[in-house]
Amino acid sequence: MYNTSMISKERPIGFSPAFEVAACFCEHDGKVLFLKRHSKKDYGGFWNLPAGKLEKGETAEQAVIREVKEETGINLQGDQIIRIQTYYDTYPEYMYLFHTFLAHVGSKEVEIKDDEAVDFTWLKPVEALRIDLVPDEDYCIKDAFGLD
């Protein structure tokens, strides 16, 4: 699988999202949590932030709190998350909104769900750019942490 998407911080002309995704940079002592995707999922074996689609009637904030809990066991509170950016992601088959958040977490304890991920790691943002990330995750990391 290769990346055929385009990601932007500005809404492209004709942008019509099919769905929305919320993702979280869970940070502890300068390192960010990344999950290795299960082989049965799209981009299996690649790394990404805890993330998932918004459910009907759910805000991006509610979705990121739910997804982080489901995928990692980490309980976030609303006042703990900071919205970073919403991106407009366009693939040939669909378009979607990608909301990113930052949360400082008090512990590195993680409980991954077998059907969601197969491994996890804590990395400095610059280190994460050297692993196999899902498409556009590198762009979001660079943008969120001011990296080139």
Give a short summary of the structure.
The protein has 3 helices and 8 strands. By secondary structure, it is of the alpha+beta class. Strands 1, 2, 3, 4, 5, 6, 7 and 8 form an 8-stranded mixed sheet that branches.
What is the subunit arrangement here?
Answer: single chain
Radius of gyration: 14 Å
Q: What is the helix fraction of residues, given as a range? A: 10-25%
Number of helical stretches of at least 4 residues: 3
Distance between the termini: 25 Å
Helix/strand/pairing category: alpha+beta
Name of the level-1 CATH class: Alpha Beta
Total strands: the figure is: 8
What spatial form do the alpha-carbon principal axes imply? globular
Please give the domain count. Answer: 1
Strand content: 35-45%
What's the main sheet like?
8 strands, mixed
Low-confidence stretches: none
Structural account:
The chain has 148 residues and is α+β, with helices and mostly antiparallel strands. Helices cover 18% and strands 35% of the residues. The chain has 3 helices and 8 strands. Strands 1, 2, 3, 4, 5, 6, 7 and 8 form an 8-stranded mixed β-sheet that branches. A hairpin with a 2-residue loop joins strand 2 and strand 3.
Task: Describe the structure using short key phrases.
single chain; 148 residues; alpha+beta; eight-stranded mixed β-sheet; 18% helix; globular
